[in-house]
């Protein structure tokens, strides 16, 4: 703009009316503008209502921020206060819960996913029903499952395993069935044309395509479940969350920061290992998925 | 077995050559089988170790499984055809309160997602390889995002409830902070995948960094951002439904007290409300997301 000679600019501006009549639709962006304004207005209105309905107040935010500042000072330096061995043990428990829960979920989700895949079970009632079953398992949060299982098998990590297995059965089942549905039809037709039965078509046509995807997804879930397994302790379902919730309640914040650092370290380590395994399993694509 | 008469007929090769090929094939298969077996063995060993650490007791499980079915049976409402309307009204005796709390839950999820999206937009360009010019800033932003998404939202909520007081505000802030971390990562990955030619064009005509972001990157990334934010909203609705467990607002408060105090039919009533809401929002958001992605395809 700065560099362009004035003649060019004047010339371009001179052409503007002609261009406007020639390309009327391109220039009148009104409908787009109106739509954007409507969307922005709706968002602003809803936000205002939400802020009002949820009792937001600037005073509380400011005083809370001050308290948070105090808390972060109280968190330093992180220290386990002599309970490091206990914490480490429950960290292992957390990882074990995540691993076992995901494994059980995967084992149950794998056969069930075929029922929910349109290309394997064309019967609409079966795959529609199977999907709604998965929705129910997925729609209930892990913490709620944990509460329910604590009622059945008692307090402790076993309830956590069952909780993660239940909620992940829903998520993994959905993702697995999507993987099955996106599998290429060619190999299936090939097996069919060579005289393979339906079971052969699934075993030799679909399975080789989806096993890497399923492996990658399961690894990714082990990773993300290490995070969720840290919180189910809050309702007594085992793992490091038991200590975390307790230390926060008694405002023993040095321990809290120590526990958070331990979780961060564990999650980073698992990220690293499962990233490597994923790349080994499906090549570079695995990295993009994480 | 395989070596009997049909071998030549099948392969159309000389006998010796076919044998060599089949031998090599068998060898390759054996190696693969061995690999699969090794992986399976490792998985099973880890599972056994985990089961030991996590105190898995199949006997407790089978012995107490009847309690789960019992529990399911107990939380079922007693509905009769004769007095259906009355029974449903009885089942949902606190419908007004629950509905208000359910709306509160949705608002918590909405505001949390909004805070998360705004924070993520603010941070994602600095965290990306192609737009984040300052290496130290990029490193710091990425570590910050990692921290925010690794600490679960319930942990933030526990802290915020003490700092900001009980109530939905703590829940909103906890979900928001956590969403900044998870959306931030997804957003900067979108930013790193944009076509850089428009950016070069903007820079060539004298635009500064902000102009490149606004006119070169933004039109490319906005649909992706919106789609991921919607997906996060779905996740946050589930997260907001348990915020009440730690006193951070929403319907979780009623649910946990119903479970803890054994108000059986209330448990099923609240769970059903949450489930229906979650499924409806999933379906609705999916429709919108498909349209967003479709729009992206049309403009590309």
Automatic annotation (TrEMBL), chain A:
<feature type="transmembrane region" description="Helical">
    <location>
        <begin position="229"/>
        <end position="245"/>
    </location>
</feature>
<dbReference type="InterPro" id="IPR000515">
    <property type="entry name" value="MetI-like"/>
</dbReference>
<feature type="transmembrane region" description="Helical">
    <location>
        <begin position="202"/>
        <end position="222"/>
    </location>
</feature>
<comment type="similarity">
    <text>Belongs to the binding-protein-dependent transport system permease family.</text>
</comment>
<feature type="transmembrane region" description="Helical">
    <location>
        <begin position="36"/>
        <end position="54"/>
    </location>
</feature>
<dbReference type="GO" id="GO:0015416">
    <property type="term" value="F:ABC-type phosphonate transporter activity"/>
</dbReference>
<keyword id="KW-0472">Membrane</keyword>
<dbReference type="InterPro" id="IPR005769">
    <property type="entry name" value="PhnE/PtxC"/>
</dbReference>
<feature type="transmembrane region" description="Helical">
    <location>
        <begin position="97"/>
        <end position="121"/>
    </location>
</feature>
<feature type="transmembrane region" description="Helical">
    <location>
        <begin position="251"/>
        <end position="274"/>
    </location>
</feature>
<feature type="transmembrane region" description="Helical">
    <location>
        <begin position="142"/>
        <end position="165"/>
    </location>
</feature>
<keyword id="KW-1133">Transmembrane helix</keyword>
<dbReference type="InterPro" id="IPR035906">
    <property type="entry name" value="MetI-like_sf"/>
</dbReference>
<feature type="domain" description="ABC transmembrane type-1">
    <location>
        <begin position="91"/>
        <end position="274"/>
    </location>
</feature>
<keyword id="KW-0813">Transport</keyword>
<keyword id="KW-0812">Transmembrane</keyword>
<dbReference type="GO" id="GO:0005886">
    <property type="term" value="C:plasma membrane"/>
</dbReference>
<dbReference type="Pfam" id="PF00528">
    <property type="entry name" value="BPD_transp_1"/>
</dbReference>
<protein>
    <submittedName>
        <fullName>Phosphonate ABC transporter, permease protein PhnE</fullName>
    </submittedName>
</protein>
Automatic annotation (TrEMBL), chain B:
<dbReference type="Pfam" id="PF00528">
    <property type="entry name" value="BPD_transp_1"/>
</dbReference>
<dbReference type="InterPro" id="IPR000515">
    <property type="entry name" value="MetI-like"/>
</dbReference>
<keyword id="KW-0812">Transmembrane</keyword>
<feature type="transmembrane region" description="Helical">
    <location>
        <begin position="74"/>
        <end position="93"/>
    </location>
</feature>
<feature type="transmembrane region" description="Helical">
    <location>
        <begin position="262"/>
        <end position="283"/>
    </location>
</feature>
<keyword id="KW-0813">Transport</keyword>
<dbReference type="InterPro" id="IPR005769">
    <property type="entry name" value="PhnE/PtxC"/>
</dbReference>
<feature type="transmembrane region" description="Helical">
    <location>
        <begin position="105"/>
        <end position="128"/>
    </location>
</feature>
<protein>
    <submittedName>
        <fullName>Phosphonate ABC transporter, permease protein PhnE</fullName>
    </submittedName>
</protein>
<keyword id="KW-1133">Transmembrane helix</keyword>
<dbReference type="InterPro" id="IPR035906">
    <property type="entry name" value="MetI-like_sf"/>
</dbReference>
<dbReference type="GO" id="GO:0005886">
    <property type="term" value="C:plasma membrane"/>
</dbReference>
<feature type="transmembrane region" description="Helical">
    <location>
        <begin position="154"/>
        <end position="177"/>
    </location>
</feature>
<keyword id="KW-0472">Membrane</keyword>
<feature type="transmembrane region" description="Helical">
    <location>
        <begin position="37"/>
        <end position="54"/>
    </location>
</feature>
<feature type="domain" description="ABC transmembrane type-1">
    <location>
        <begin position="102"/>
        <end position="285"/>
    </location>
</feature>
<feature type="transmembrane region" description="Helical">
    <location>
        <begin position="235"/>
        <end position="256"/>
    </location>
</feature>
<keyword id="KW-1003">Cell membrane</keyword>
<comment type="similarity">
    <text>Belongs to the binding-protein-dependent transport system permease family.</text>
</comment>
<dbReference type="GO" id="GO:0015416">
    <property type="term" value="F:ABC-type phosphonate transporter activity"/>
</dbReference>
């Amino acid at each position: 703009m700065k560099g362009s000679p004035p003649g060019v600019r004047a010339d371009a501006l001179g052409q503007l009316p002609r261009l406007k009549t020639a390309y009327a639709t391109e220039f009148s962006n009104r409908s787009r503008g109106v739509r954007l304004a409507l969307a922005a207005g709706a968002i602003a209105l809803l936000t205002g209502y939400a802020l009002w309905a949820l009792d937001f107040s600037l005073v509380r935010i400011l005083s809370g921020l001050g308290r948070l500042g105090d808390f972060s000072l109280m968190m330093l330096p992180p220290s386990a206060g002599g309970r490091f061995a206990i914490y480490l043990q429950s960290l292992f428990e957390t990882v074990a819960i995540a691993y076992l829960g995901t494994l059980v979920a995967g084992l149950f989700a794998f056969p069930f996913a075929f029922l929910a895949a349109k290309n394997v079970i064309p019967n609409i009632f079966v795959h529609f029903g199977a999907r709604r079953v998965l929705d129910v398992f997925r729609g209930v949060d892990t913490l709620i499952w944990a509460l329910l299982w604590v009622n059945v098998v008692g307090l402790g990590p076993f309830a956590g395993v069952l909780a993660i297995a239940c909620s992940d059965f829903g998520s993994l089942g959905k993702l697995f069935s999507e993987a099955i549905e996106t599998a290429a039809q060619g190999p299936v037709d090939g097996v069919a044309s060579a005289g393979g039965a339906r079971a052969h078509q699934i075993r030799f046509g679909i399975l080789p395509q989806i096993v890497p995807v399923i492996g990658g997804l399961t690894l990714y879930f082990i990773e993300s479940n290490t995070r969720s397994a840290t919180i189910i302790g809050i309702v007594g379902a085992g793992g490091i969350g038991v200590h975390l919730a307790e230390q926060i309640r008694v405002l023993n914040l040095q321990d809290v920061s120590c526990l958070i650092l331990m979780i961060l370290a564990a999650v980073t380590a698992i990220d690293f290992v499962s990233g490597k395994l994923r790349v080994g399993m499906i090549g570079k694509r695995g990295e993009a998925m994480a | 077995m395989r070596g009997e008469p049909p071998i030549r007929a099948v392969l159309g090769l000389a006998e010796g050559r076919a044998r060599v090929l089949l031998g090599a094939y068998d060898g390759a298969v054996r190696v693969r089988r061995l690999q699969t077996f090794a992986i399976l063995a490792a998985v099973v060993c880890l599972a056994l170790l985990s089961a030991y650490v996590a105190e898995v007791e199949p006997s407790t499980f089978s012995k107490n499984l009847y309690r789960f079915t019992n529990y399911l049976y107990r939380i079922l409402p007693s509905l009769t055809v004769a007095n259906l309307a009355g029974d449903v009204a009885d089942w949902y005796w606190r419908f007004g309160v629950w509905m208000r709390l359910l709306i509160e839950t949705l608002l918590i999820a909405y505001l949390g997602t909004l805070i998360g999206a705004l924070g993520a937009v603010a941070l994602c360009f600095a965290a990306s390889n192609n737009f984040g010019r300052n290496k130290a800033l990029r490193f710091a932003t990425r570590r910050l995002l990692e921290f925010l998404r690794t600490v679960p939202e319930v942990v933030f909520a526990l802290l915020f409830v003490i700092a900001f007081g009980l109530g939905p505000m703590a829940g909103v802030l906890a979900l928001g902070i956590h969403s900044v971390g998870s959306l931030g990562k997804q957003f900067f990955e979108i930013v790193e995948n944009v076509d850089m030619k428009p950016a070069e064009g903007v820079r060539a005509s004298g635009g500064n960094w902000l102009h490149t972001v606004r006119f070169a990157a933004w039109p490319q990334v906005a649909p992706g951002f919106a789609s991921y934010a919607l997906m996060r909203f779905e996740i946050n609705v589930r997260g907001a439904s348990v915020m009440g467990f730690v006193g951070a607002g929403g319907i979780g408060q009623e649910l946990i007290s119903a479970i803890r105090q054994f108000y059986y039919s209330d448990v099923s009533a609240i769970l059903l409300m949450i489930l229906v809401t979650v499924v409806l929002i999933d379906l609705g958001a999916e429709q919108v997301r498909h349209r967003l992605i479709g729009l992206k395809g049309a403009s590309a």
